[in-house]
Amino acid sequence: QLQLVESGGGLVQPGGSLRLSCAASGSSFSIYAMGWYRQAPGKQRELVATIHTGGSTNYADSVKGRFTISRDNAKNTVYLQMNSLKPEDTAVYYCNALRVITPRTNYWGQGTQVTVSS
What we know:
The protein is an all-beta fold.
């Protein structure tokens, strides 16, 4: 079992920055691929970025060059640095953990609100 707790959301002006954190507990963090997803009102949840156990990353086209995902296995934490924020980045951001060895279990955090507005 893995518990995920996100933090770092808030209200920011367009062009500003935020850093989201997701702290994991309850299991071996290093065997999980980690990701950030977001869901805007009236829209489906979408992938923002992922980072595999070996450190390889993947980004949605809409955030490439602006967002950076990273992980600190010693702190059991994954981060999402968000720069040059746009109003369309407004959403609830969710942390995800996918166990990469069997059983391939999926976990979600409770979400943190990010609002980009002037």
